[in-house]
Design a protein that fits this description.
There is one protein chain. The chain is of the alpha/beta class. It has a single domain, classed as Rossmann fold (3-Layer(aba) Sandwich), CATH 3.40.50.1580. Helices cover about 35% and strands about 25% of the residues. The protein has a five-stranded mixed β-barrel with strand order 5-8-7-6-9. α1 packs across α4 and α5 crosses α8 (about 250-275). It is globular. The two termini are about 35 Å apart. The chain binds hypoxanthine. Hypoxanthine binds near residues 116, 117 and 238.
Length: about 280
């Protein structure tokens, strides 16, 4: 057997036991400052990453490092309060590991969230944005022998973000009076923020927001055939010129994300209910 699958299944088995018969159908990844949604989950079990076999540890600021199995709007979900980033030094296999574990646990839909810098000049601090496509500048997480059991060698990415879920999210946001636009998320490795020239370049190639995460998980999820819904909170206007105030991930990004997290939580709850 593929040794990678042995590890995935060992972790899946551990989490399945913790779930005590409940089977999560939706997986949720909560990014920088967005862990708050996890507190609204009616938890069946909350497991620190350090206690989960084969899991990495979340070292990023604003990431609590808990795997929660619980209920949202009566549906069983599992949620990661914090993710693993390539910039932390984890190989892509480790960054995407929890997604494959979720897929083996029976998850069919993945929600991903992140804090991102606004590249589109129309994006403002505190905005919630649906990710409707991405540009990947990171190493592709599927490089290496194909995980045959999960998906094909050359998975299609023409519709990575589920149109039906996006339409539902837009309808719910309109009902709740939450302004919600869509945009293209560009992922780079970080951890350094972008230069003004890089931001101009990203704008030119069609990015609306920029960040250091999410896309590896989305590629991993699409490879397994999961439906994906993605959302960004715009925590800063990315460095358009040298006058821009310097960013501090530990303070500014996490604080702004935290302030917008309630809106995102409301939306996620209603969306889980509607699926
Ligand atoms: N750039 C990259 N990642 C980010 C940013 C940014 O401006 N803001 C939050 N995450």
């Amino acid at each position: 057997m593929d040794p990678r699958l042995t590890l995935i299944d060992e972790t899946g088995e551990f989490l399945r036991e913790k779930a005590a018969g409940f089977k999560p159908e939706i997986g949720i990844v909560l990014g920088s400052g967005l862990g708050k949604f996890g507190d609204s989950i009616e938890a069946i079990e909350t497991i620190p990453y350090a206690d989960i076999p084969n899991f990495a540890h979340s070292t990023a600021i604003g990431h609590k490092g808990n795997f929660i199995i619980g209920k949202v709007a009566g549906k069983v979900v599992c949620a990661m309060q914090g993710r693993f980033h390539f910039y932390e030094g984890y190989p892509m296999e480790q960054v995407t590991f929890p997604i494959r574990v979720m897929a083996r646990m029976g998850v069919k839909t993945l929600f991903v969230s992140n804090a991102a810098g606004g590249v589109n000049p129309g994006f403002k601090i505190g905005d919630l944005r649906i990710i409707d496509d991405h540009i990947n500048t990171m190493p592709n997480p599927l490089i290496g022998p194909n995980h045959e059991l999960f998906g094909e060698r050359f998975p299609d990415m023409s519709c990575a973000y589920d149109r039906e879920i996006i339409a539902k999210a837009e309808a719910i946001a309109a009902e709740l009076g939450i302004p919600l636009k869509k945009g293209v998320y560009l992922a780079n490795t970080g951890p350094s923020y972008e230069t003004p020239a890089e931001i101009r370049y990203y704008r030119t190639v069609g990015a609306d927001a920029v960040g250091m995460s999410t896309v590896p998980e989305v590629i991993g999820a699409r490879h397994c055939g999961l439906r994906v819904f993605g959302m960004s909170i715009i925590t800063n206007v990315a460095n358009h010129n040298v006058e821009t105030v310097k960013l501090n991930h530990g303070e500014d990004v996490v604080r702004i994300a935290d302030a917008a997290a309630d809106k995102m939580s409301m939306l996620f709850t209603r969306l889980v209910e509607a699926l």
